Amino acid sequence: MIIGGIGFTLITAAFFMSLVAWYSYIKTKGEVSDTAGYFLAGRGLTGGFIAGSLLLTNLSAEQLVGLNGQAYRTNLSNMAWEVTAAFAIIIMATYLLPKYLGGNFTTLPEFLSKRFDEGVRQYTVLLFMLGYILVTAPSMLYSGALAVLQLFNVPELFGISYEASVWIVIWIIGIIGAIYAIFGGLKAVAISDTLNGVGLIIIGLLVPILGLIALGDGSIGDGMKQIATTDTEKMNSIGTKQDSVPFGTIFTGMIFANLFYWASNQYVIQRTLGAKSLAEGQKGVLISGFYKLLVPLTMMIPGVIAFHMYGGGLKSVDLAYPTLISDVLPKWMSGFFLAVLLGAVLSSFNSLLNSAATMFALDIYKAGFNRNADDAKLIFVSKIAGTLLAVISLCIAPLLMNAPEGLWDLIRRFTGFFNIPIIAILLVGIFSKRIPALAAKVVIIFHVITYYMLVWGTQHLFDYAVPIHFIHIYAILFVAEVAIMIGIGMWKPRATPYTFRSEAAVDMVPWKYTLPVSVILLAFVAITYFVFSPIGLAYDGGYVSTAFWPIIAGIVAVTAVLSYTSIKKWNKSYASYLLKEEKTTERKIATKASIKTTVTDLT
After folding, report:
1. Lowest-pLDDT range of 321-325, 417-421, 487-491
2. How confident is the model at residue 493 (pLDDT cuts 50, 70, 90)?
3. For residues 578, 579, 580 and 585, what is the CA-based torsion angle, rounded to 10 degrees?
4. What's the burial of 402, exposed, middle or buried (CB within 10 Å: 0-12/13-18/19+)?
5. What is the pLDDT of residue 581?
6. Buried b / exposed e across 235-248, counting CB within 10 Å, b at 16+?
7. pLDDT of the residue at 30
8. In degrees, to the nearest 5, what angle opens at C-alpha 65 toward C-alphas 60 and 67?
9. Of the candidate ranges 200-214, 302-316, 393-407, 470-484, the one whose mean pLDDT is the lowest
10. Degrees (nearest 5) of the Cα angle 592, 598, 601?
11. Which of 204, 359, 374, 380 is deepest in the core (most CB within 10 A)?
């Protein structure tokens, strides 16, 4: 499938990508000479860059092609992964981010080492590194290569085999992403992600508009009427129990999966740890939540439009988006689209690579081998580690094309090996003072074995499949693991309670609109689900049911009241709480120091 002349496409794509690279270089020149500059962007990231980087880190070609393919095949139920992330985003912005910035942490394993011990740090780093390098990074690269191959018939264009095409495209994408991550540090990643994010939003909004115009034979209104009144089940986000994401999972394991991703996954939270201030960090995190609400429009509605245009005649559901793109996108925009597509892929890869290299340098090399390593040494080690990790991922990624059928399901489920134990340990560590490191280590080992048995093991060993959706298994194991940790804490508590130390390196005054914006974000989540529901656009008796507008009006009214209350009352209490916690910590530390000095003087 060729969009315009291949020469023009490649030249214009290279032009747009070069602009992003040049601007990123100019903005980061001379700012990565120390660890704060390299690993945390000099703690100078503003809300806009944080939000843009979070957007591109989260979204890649896999979602762009895969979510539209799912909408083409079934309905909008898969939007749950994206839209309900708002709950985790709000928890991250209002509660966990102040903890992270207040503790002046660079990595999550660093926090866990202070809360528990170095053993827990090593366990979690091992989980992160294995998941990132062996599965997550290779799958990002492979899905990106598939998207490019679906849009551009590379084997035919260059007269090479399909296998050779996969290898070449993967290595091109991977090398570009590695250059950003290894030589530019976090700030280069954040800036390039933000610029590519602008392009993704432009393309994402343009494609459904052009698709509706094509569907309506030149009238966007007629196109909208067709998807709203015919085959309306395609617009249903509630879905059925047979869908890959049953609606009930939103209230069980998906809560913890999203909380892990947005509040503890190192390659996501690292840009928030580089925030210029708590206010800028909160602003960036919450803005990213509104970006996520665009996903149904930009990454699923095109799949619905493709269904109405092509019926069920496509050979693969993953061809829905590429086919629509080739038919509706103007030829002169082909290079810009390719640049955005590649930008989405390499941004996810370079963010992951940057975080993996950061953890290697700080949580493995410095913590385990050279505690006195200076900034220059740590940056050097990080670059070497990043290069080796990139090469490993680039070698593994093409091998995925030889994997057995069903590998993609395996990849989507693989994060279950490390997401639930890490978020369980993090939350228990924050909300308790006496639970020991032993509890965290037991839970990690327990989870890896139990999760494998419940999702795959019983089928492999006993030919019996556990009849529970893997997202529900997330929730079951989370509850079990929290209970295990509490039990061990009661049996063998820490000798001394853990005390949080406030070592903030940035301004900790919260963003004054944190609470009202959080309320508005939750309201938009509710509205989005009602819009794409049987009483909204999935209503089969017309455009929407008679109950739709009263419900929307009720949500708006409640949101207005809660937003006003948060500005007038809750803001002061929230800011006072954060300030009190910080001062209490400082006072405890000062008191301990005073007592120690007094004892020394007396002896």
Report:
1. 321-325
2. very high
3. 90
4. exposed
5. 67
6. bbbbbeeebbbbbe
7. 57
8. 90
9. 393-407
10. 145
11. 359
From the number of C-beta atoms within 10 Å of its C-beta (0-12, 13-18, 19+), residue 580 rates as exposed
pLDDT at residue 531, as a whole number:
93
What are residue 275's DSSP bridge partners?
A: 45
360/132 Cα distance (integer angstroms): 12
What tokens appear for 387 in the block?
Answer: 């290069």
**Residue 602: pLDDT over 70:** no
Cα–Cα distance, 588 to 603 (Å, whole number): 23
Question: CA dist 586 to 94, 577, 603, Å?
Answer: 21, 14, 26
Largest CA distance in the chain: 91
Residue 522 has pLDDT above 90, yes or no: yes
Contacts of 166 (CB under 8 A, 6+ apart): 142, 145, 146, 149, 398, 401
Report which of 352, 386, 157, 172 is spatially closest to residue 269, judged by C-alpha positions. 352
| C-alpha span between 269 and 265 (Å, rounded) | 6
Q: Which residue has the higher pLDDT, 229 or 404?
A: 229
429-438 pLDDT, tens per residue? 999 999 999 9
Token pair, residue 121, equals 């740090």
| CA distances to 184, 187, 270, 282, 599 from 388, in Å | 16, 21, 21, 34, 51
**Least confident piece of the model among 43-52, 57-66, 312-321:** 57-66
Of 168, 190, 140, 194, residue with least CA distance to 39: 190
Contact between 84 and 254 under an 8 Å Cβ cutoff? The reply is: yes
Nearest CA to 56 out of 225, 150, 181, 218 is that of 181
Taken in order 516, 475, 116, 588, the sign of the CA dihedral is positive
What 386-389 contacts at long range (C-beta under 8 Å, 24+ apart), as own/partner pairs, is 386/178, 386/181, 386/182, 386/353, 386/354, 386/356, 386/357, 386/360, 387/178, 387/182, 389/132, 389/133, 389/137, 389/353, 389/356, 389/357, 389/360
Residue 45, phi then psi, degrees to nearest 5 = -75, 130
Chain centre to alpha carbon of residue 253: 16
How far is 175 from 65, CA to CA, in rounded Å? 22
Give the range among 173-187, 324-338, 344-358, 587-601 with minimum mean pLDDT: 587-601
DSSP letter assigned to residue 405:
T
Cβ neighbours, 10 Å, residue 130:
14
Tokens 């992160």, residue? Answer: 128
Tell whether the torsion through CA atoms of 17, 18, 23 and 29 is positive or negative: positive
Q: Which residue has the tokens 């993704």?
A: 200
- The model's pTM: 0.85
Mean predicted confidence (pLDDT) in 460-488 = 93
**For helices 470-491 and 437-452, angle between their N-to-C axes, nearest 10 degrees:** 150
CA 428/CA 514 separation, integer angstroms = 25
Is residue 517 scored above 90 in pLDDT?
Answer: yes
Residue 426 scores a pLDDT above 90:
yes
